[in-house]
Amino acid sequence: MSTQTQTAIPEVAAPSKLSRYRRGALRFVAKNPLGAAGLFMVLLMVIIGVFVPFFQRYNPITPDYNHMLEGPSWTHFLGTDEFGRDLWSRVVGGTRVSLQVSFASVAIGSVLGLFLGIISGYFGGIVDDVLQRLVEIKLSLPGILLAIALMTAFGPGVDKVIIAIALSFVGRALRTMRGSVLSVKENVYIEAARAIGASNMRIMLRHILPNVMAPFLIVASSALGGAILQESTLSFLGLGVPPPTPSWGRMLSGSASQYAMSAPWMVIFPGVAITWLVLGFNLFGDALRDVWDPRLRGSQ
Asked: Which of 75, 123, 190, 195 is 20 to 30 Å from 99 at the Cα level?
């Protein structure tokens, strides 16, 4: 009598979400090394901006007339300004201001452009014509000039800087979202939703909005670097964040230009901070575009 032995096949555990995320992150780094470098640059500045008191060694707004215009040293890593204030502490403090303004302004402007773009592309007709004429009027003016005009009317203040920069981004987001909606609404599932009696609001929120999120995130991420530059420009012109709040643009204006030759660290380090963060946002935004844009996905 023969006995048949059965060999148990071990079950293969399904990969966990953490392992899938890890593989996705490694794949992103391998395919987009510059995008990964940009993400690292942005995350580093975000960590500094969130934990500002931990990184600051001195009060960034308190003068110290015994240490005016000192060069970089172990006591003052980036030197001091004409009032003896520690430049490292001021650059670190300016990181939070720049990140706060950039994220808030891009979020407000992009979200407003998103919903206006959906309305414009979905309904068309007179609604689309009116919104597009307004966008053309807005796009005829450079964004920084519009922001300067708004800040001249509003006056200085962080909240007003956010509103001014946000309004300068609405037109670009609206135009991009309108184009995406015009493409999506021609799909069969939109006609099917109409056939079963779905309302316009349900179609826009349930079927169109999820399918235009990829271009929306691309537009928002690419606008962050521009928001940093606009905030720095407004502060440089004296229209942005009011003193004594540290701001990279304000550090480059005023007396910093007067001491550019005798104390170049007053100009170099705030400029390096602006360049670092803008470059990080641009590299990461370009990587997201390459990953999510279906027209570029096949070329990788």
From this structure: 75
